[in-house]
Known about the structure:
Elements: E1 2-6, H1 15-31, H2 39-45, H3 49-53, H4 60-63, H5 71-92, H6 94-115, H7 127-140, E2 145-152, E3 155-162, H8 163-180, H9 189-209, H10 213-219
Antiparallel strand pairs: 1-2, 2-3
Amino acid sequence: MFPIRDHNPSERTPYVTYLLVFLNIGMFLLTMPWAFGMTGLWDRLALYPVAVVNGEYMWGLLTHMFLHAGPLHIAGNMLFLWIFGDNLEDQMGHFGFLIFYLASGLAAAGAQIAANPQEGIPMVGASGAIAGVMGGYLLLFPKARVDVLAIIIVFIKVFTIPAWVMLGVWFILQIFGGFSLMGGDSVAYWAHAGGFVAGVILALPVFLRRGGPSFWQRTHGQPPHPPTQYSRTRIPQVRR
């Protein structure tokens, strides 16, 4: 189950979101052996927790956010950034959103290092920073409508749910994964959880400037502008 779009239109062009997507895709192509083949960049710019703890490869705290391990990795991250990033940039402004994004990524890296400071396996991916975007989105637009694609074996269904349901379930899964390690997979669950919490905290000034709880009362937790209405294509019924 994953989101494919929201019903929360932006009132300004999200240039920073576009730039972040472009940079991530560009770095992905540079470091993939089947593209430009600059694999040394991937090794050099990844985040190594044990190295950072010992004062080495400190730039990895920032550069790891622009590296990805495979097509599905970057596709999933960019989809989430594309869906939720434009609305936060709309509320924070271009420069404010860029600072928010990078700060969320740094907080996510810090959470992952704190969880396992002796880890020598490199960490890459924008998911920690994007988790911060999701946390900020939850704070500002908890009842925004999100279209979710669910795939259950051979059944495919698109349905609409409030953002707080989708993002809340996602966050709970990260906490569960962090404690259980989900069978020992390579997902940085604590980076996701840490970035999400940091996003909520970092978005608080914007939320309070909008009026805090009174902002929710005015908007009922939904976007402060009319939602996008998507038309659904229906297959006509053929009668015997």
